[in-house]
Specification:
Mean pLDDT: 94
Shape: globular
Bound molecules: flavin-adenine dinucleotide
Distance between the termini: 40 Å
Strand order of the largest sheet: 5-6-4-14-15-16-13-17
Low-confidence stretches: 2-6
Order of helices and strands: EHEEHHEHEHEEHEEEEEHEEEEHEEEH
Number of helices: 9
Number of strands: 19
CATH superfamily of the largest domain: FAD/NAD(P)-binding domain
Strand content: 15-25%
Largest sheet: 8 strands, mixed
Length: about 400
């Protein structure tokens, strides 16, 4: 590609679009397989899309075998990152605490059994046991579960670590490059960024919430759309315990410690599209819903300047699409992660590199994330028998 950024690969094997945590993980894993890689990012630095706006949570507490296995691969990668690669990524096992209403208790325990059968440590608690972690009203709870490996990482640090590692492995990063056109060329792709162009063998679409739009540039369909998510920050609170990422499965209200404050939120199903900014009317809804479980929220101050918003990239079943696009041979999508793209970035990078280097997912099972699940019998939410994740937060 012409332009001011020095580069070593005028025609790389792979062009990765997007330098969020997924694009950076893909770039490093691809380079580790000996492939030449160029990353194109429209912002001036990595992690300025959804990656920089997340709640940073990582967990094993999923309901499908594939998601649990992907967490069991990814969590140790974050936990041991410094020993393996020499970079700190901020992993802290502050835990995830899930508060479970009676109508979900039986199926929740079945998920815990699956998690444990796959080696994931999860503790089953009574509602009263949950008080060890967070002050709350226990009415209407059948029980709770706690994941001692679960917690948070620093998504900026992880992304920058993979960028540095992949640069060392020869990957070119081009910032300030918006991909504006894509067309098939010689079995691969010609990728246009304004007046500049690049030829490559494969495209990896790691464009987050913008992946659907990126695919449309190539005449392809990727069922990923943006959904605005808002996170509110409290003022300082008196309790000096560190609250785990606590989710009330009955209402969807969540919180966790952030320094001497808490961050908290509740997703709205009506927030589709590239809507920008914090909706302060929604804050009232969150507080009114949450105060039932957390009576201390009556006194909760809110730091309006510290609150923020960002986009989930979502699919019809809230699980990602990872794999070859049915409309093109040399195009791999890695997008649509809803609220767990930070969590599964290590497994995604590995799987995308397998798909390109080996022609298929050779290490982890990625069948549940294939495009084709949306194409059978006109089904919007997965074909019969496909596993559908229900712990989507
Ligand atoms: C409020 C909030 C809370 C969240 N909490 C969690 C959590 O606790 N745990 C978790 O695992 N996940 C969480 N997520 C989800 C997580 O942030 C995402 O799944 C993850 O960041 C996706 O990473 P990505 O690299 O695919 O996307 P992004 O980080 O969005 O990267 C995509 C990149 O593509 C670039 N791009 C777009 N279009 C173009 C173009 N045409 N040309 C060039 N570049 C382009 C963008 O600039 C962007 O940098 C949360 C998200 C939000 C918004």
């Amino acid at each position: 590609m012409s332009g001011p950024t020095p580069h070593t690969h005028p025609s790389p094997d792979v062009a990765v679009i997007g330098a969020g945590i997924v694009g950076a993980s893909c770039a490093w894993h691809l380079a580790a397989r000996g492939l030449s890689v160029t990353v194109l990012e429209r912002e001036q630095a990595p992690a300025l899309g959804s990656t920089g706006r997340s709640a940073a949570g990582v967990r094993v507490q999923f309901t499908t075998r594939t998601n649990i296995e992907w967490s069991m691969h990814s969590l140790p990668v974050y936990r041991d990152f410094r020993q393996r690669h020499g970079f700190e990524v901020g992993y802290r096992n502050i835990g995830y605490l899930l508060l479970v209403p009676p109508e979900r208790w039986e199926s929740h325990l079945a998920s815990v059994a699956l998690q444990r059968s796959l080696g994931a440590p999860v503790e089953v608690l009574s509602p009263e046991d949950a008080l060890r972690y967070v002050p709350l009203a226990t009415e209407g709870l059948a029980g709770a579960t706690y994941g001692p490996w679960d917690g948070v990482i620093d998504p900026h640090m992880a992304t920058h670590a993979w960028v540095a590692m992949s640069r060392d492995a020869g990957v070119d990063y081009h910032f300030g490059r918006t991909v504006t056109a894509l067309e098939p060329a010689g079995g691969g792709w010609r990728v246009q960024c304004g007046a500049e162009a690049l030829s490559c063998g494969f495209v990896v679409n790691a464009g987050g919430a913008w992946s659907g739009e990126i695919a449309r540039l190539a005449g392809l369909r990727v069922p990923v759309r943006p959904k605005r998510i808002q996170i509110f920050l409290s003022g300082p609170i008196a309790d000096d315990r560190i609250y785990p990422l606590t989710i009330d499965l009955g209402t969807g209200v969540y919180l966790r410690s952030e320094g001497d404050r808490i961050l908290f939120g509740l997703d709205t199903h009506a927030d589709d599209g590239f809507t920008e900014g914090v909706d302060w009317a929604w804050l009232e809804e969150v507080l009114v819903t949450g105060v039932e479980r957390y009576p201390w929220w009556e006194e909760l101050g809110v730091d309006r300047r510290g609150s923020w918003w960002g986009y989930y990239g979502v699919t019809p079943d809230n699980s990602p699409v990872i794999g070859r696009n049915p409309g093109a041979l040399s195009w791999i999508d890695a997008c649509g992660f809803s609220g767990h793209g930070i969590m599964h970035a290590p497994a995604t990078g590995l799987t995308v590199s397998d798909m390109i280097a080996d022609g298929r997912a050779t290490t982890l099972d990625a069948d549940a994330f294939r495009h084709e699940r949306f194409q059978n019998a006109g089904s919007e939410v997965g074909e019969a028998g496909a596993e559908v994740e229900t712990n989507i937060f």
